[in-house]
Amino acid sequence: MRKRLLEGVKICDFCWVWVGPMTTKTLADQGAQVIKIEGKSRPDVWRVSPPFKDNIVGYNRGGIFNIINSSKKSITLNLSKPKGIEIAKKLVAWADVVTENFAGGAMEKMGLSYAELKRIKPDIIMLSAAMMGQTGPYTNMPGFGAQLTALSGFTHVAGWPDREPADLGHYTDFIAPRYNALAILAALDYRRRTGKGVHLDMAQFEGCVNFIAPLILDYTVNGRVAGRMGNRSTHASPHGAFRCRGEERWCVVAALNDEEWQSFCKIIGNPDWTKEPRFNTLLGRKENEDEMERLIETWSVNHPPERVMTIMQAAGVNAGVVQDSEDLIDRDLHLKERNYYPEIEPAEMGKYFTIAPPYKLSKVSHDIHPAPLMGEHNEYVFKEILGMSDEEIGDLVAEGVVE
Amino acid sequence: MEDTNKGLLSLYRVLDLTDEKGVFCGKLLGDLGADVIKIEPPGGDPVRNLGPFYHDEPHPEKSLFWFAFNTNKRGITLDIRSADGREILKKLVKTADFVLESFPPGYMDSIGLGYSSLEKINPRVIMVSISPFGQTGPHRDYKDSGIVTWAMCGFMGARGDADRAPIQISHHAQTFVAAGIEGGVGAMMALYDRWSTGEGQHVDVSIQEAGGRGVPPVGWVLMKIKGRRELRIGGAGLATKYLWPCKDGMVMWFYAAGSQGSRRSSPLVEWMQEEGFADEYLKGIDWDKLDMRQAGQEAVDRMAEPTARFFMSHTKAELFDGAVKRRLLLYPVSTTRDILESPQLAARGFWRQVKHPELDVELTYPGPFANVVGQPLGISRRAPLIGEHNEEVYEKELGITREEILTLKQAGVL
After folding, report:
1. Is residue A3 part of a domain?
2. Which end of chain B has fewer CB atoms surrounding its CB within 10 Å, N or C?
3. Model-level pTM?
4. Which residues constitute the domain of residue B106?
5. Cβ atoms of residues A24 and A36 within 8 Å
């Protein structure tokens, strides 16, 4: 059988919560050996946060945890004890890559700065994925995706112009892991060519600001502060989400040019209003957009969103169901065919699912396994990788270093 | 090997055929040091029609969208649908490591430039195809202007005021930017594989799936809870406020109780107390012992009243300064102006000044997405003008003669 893509890549993983674990999941799902260092005195937030399987609290029953930690190995090490740090350093010596997403300065406090890691392993690649980066006045600010989403400008431009901005949840949590994985893979390639490791100081804030770069330029060049436009477009109409038949069912539709507008009118049965001259041109539709949107809904509300999408797309008009969880899992046959939510069976979860990579490689498949139980790989890691004896391990357990 | 300061990927060449949907992918590889050649149709890429525009002058050389997402690329024009254009592209593929494209699935095959053709010319080439729903599956031919994949990936359904339609993030398509990064990750995976196999491969990126990584339907799988939009109430079943008006905008803050919450909530109350805003009720709360669910909606409302007054008495910047001092989870809802004024980004030297000689200006750009310590990435090129590097690439690198170029130009190939 063909080797797994990242087989042989060894990662010593201090990450927790979302951004870090999602980064290392990306690598683990392609065969990298990711050893997650965790502990009962400082459990990963998602080990102890709901939703839990059958509503029973347990380290190994977390609904989120089991998705974003697939394919990894877990050891339980108390990093507040000097011996815990000592063992962590042994794993650094074994690893190609060290990953962490604490607030800035935390690794240094534990004696695990890049300089120290480099001393242990000269060609180590270190990923630090703090929200603010490793330097600057805010470096040690705590925060989660919710806060960063507000700070990096997304919240202000989401929602209706006549209302307060919309809550986007932890949007930026989903941005940062992608950049992190890209940087680690580029660094692995660089190391292979040059023999040199690097320290990747990935400030989530900075990656997120890149997402809105055109709006940043609109300010630096034109002095314009970008605002909210609801679901509308600067250059297309209709462009929005329209109420469909059913409870809370919606379909987005966007007509980008005259041809698509004509097709759109034909599909909705060319009602009289579409023949009014004021709706015939883009400028006219923009001017009368409120009314047009109301008129469109008098049609869409009679049809299920799936039907709206199907007939619009068949006629070459941009359209898509606003999918909820049930749609994603049960009704989206396209995602099903592409096996986007592959089935896994973590020991305490039963049949469960995770997320597949959003890219498919033509010559090698990903290889996804269940997330580890807390400490599941203590014996494997301490014995096989670090060469410890049963006695040594027993002592560490007794001292509370291995928890 | 001495290639520090040129970036991690300085050895590689990228041919970028993408439109709006994949434009960010090539930029990232360029930021990392790769030689990225943007290939536009003669006359210029339609992306150049996307605003905003430099000084609001709608002109293909003045699109700020184009500027923002095409730094660190060279630019040539080529009609890849013509026989001559195809042959030239094939010559370029011989020395390329990556070909990026975002045409509708099957299009590259239909003009004889699919992966099966390209690998015959250069077995090491890695082709990255970015499309709304991927190269396979029943929706592969579905169109997307950005909002379709936003809706279909699941993110939209959970967002927005309950009395109106679910909401997108305004302006350009977020899922396209996300897919650009995922394309970069897929490209790097294929590059890693090439070291051991010696062969490239085809990377199929789905924009819907790229967006979907943020919204695993956990609730549905575990408890049959539908999208959150119907349940737009805080965790304890209470209507808690997340976004609060302040003197000059909004801030994000929410009270939390219990041992974690105590650490978060007490410092704000102390701060409010210092300034005389905390009332007896707020001062009397034992955050460690408080159970939000038991306390109920009335408690939440009583906390909100003095807090709202406190926030209204300060600006975003004042509140965030105080938050930094107290390590509070109180953050501004930033506008682009606030971001430009961020002391953090300034201290880290994030911003880059980029010269546009033809406009006779220097513009401020966001810096790179990554800080490789000791080897800072920069913007070594502003976005290319239409056909700016035709001569450099066609004459100097491919050895096409001036006469041939004149012929091809007049025939609309270049």
Report:
1. no
2. N
3. 0.96
4. 13-214+349-410
5. yes
The partner residue sitting opposite B333, judged by closest CB among A165, A229, A322, is: A165
Last residue of a domain, one of B309, B335, B361: B335
- pLDDT confidence tier of residue B221, bands split at 50, 70 and 90: confident
Residues of A in contact with B368 (CB under 8 A): 206, 210
**Preferred mutation among B108, B170, B205, B333 to probe A, highest tally of A CBs within 10 A:** B170
Residues 78-107 of A with CB under 8 A from B: none
3 state DSSP class of A253 = strand
Report the alpha-carbon distance of residue B182 to residue B152 in Å, rounded.
17
Residue closest to B158 by CA, chosen among B145, B167, B146: B167
- Which chain B residues are Cβ-neighbours of A371 within 8 angstroms? none
* Interface with B, mutate which of A334, A365, A368 (most B CBs under 10 A): A334
Task: Indicate the pLDDT class of residue B413, thresholds 50, 70 and 90.
Answer: very high
Is the residue at A220 inside a domain? no
**Residues from chain A contacting residue B224 (CB–CB below 8 Å):** 326
What value does the mean pLDDT take over residues B11-26?
A: 97
- Asked if residue A139 and residue A34 are part of one domain, the reply reads yes
- In this structure, what token pair is assigned to residue A272? 């009289």
Question: pLDDT of B309-323, one tens digit each?
Answer: 999 999 999 999 999
User: Is residue A230 situated within a structural domain?
Assistant: no
User: Looking at the partner chain, which of A155, A169, A200 has a beta carbon nearest the beta carbon of B370?
Assistant: A200
The verdict on a CB contact (< 8 Å) between A142 and B327 is yes
Is the CB of residue A323 less than 8 Å away from at least one CB of chain B? yes
Looking at CA atoms only, how far is residue B78 from chain A in angstroms? 25
In a domain? residue A369: yes
**CA pair distance A148, A155, nearest whole angstrom:** 9
Give the CATH number of the domain where residue A23 resides.
3.40.50.10540
- End position of a domain, from candidates B335, B361, B383: B335
Is residue B340 assigned to a domain? no
Contact assessment for residue B289 and residue B265, using Cβ atoms and an 8 Å cutoff: no
Q: What is the pLDDT of residues A133-166, one digit of tens each?
A: 999 999 999 888 999 999 999 999 999 999 999 9
CATH code at position A276:
3.30.1540.10
3-state SS, residue B348: coil
Q: What domain range is A75 assigned to?
A: 10-211+339-398
All residues of chain A having their beta carbon less than 8 Å from the beta carbon of residue B144 are: 318, 320
Q: Is this complex scored with an ipTM above 0.90?
A: yes
Given an 8 Å threshold on Cβ–Cβ distance, is A150 in contact with B331?
yes
How sure is the predictor about B300, in pLDDT bands with cuts at 50, 70 and 90?
Answer: confident
Nearest residue on chain B to A355, alpha-carbon basis? B213
Do B70 and B206 belong together in one domain?
yes
Is B238 contained in some domain?
A: no
Burial letters B4-36, b for 16+ CB under 10 A, else e? eebbbbbbbbbbbbbbbbbbbbbbbbbbbbbbb
Query: How far apart are alpha carbons B90 and B113 in whole angstroms?
Result: 8
> Which amino acid appears at position B231 of this protein?
L
One domain for residues B54 and B138 = yes
Verify that B84 and B174 share a domain, yes or no: yes
Is B64 in Cβ contact with A338 (below 8 Å)?
no
From B184, B213, B222, residue closest to A355, measured CB to CB: B213
Q: What is the DSSP string of B254-266?
A: ----HHHHHHHHH
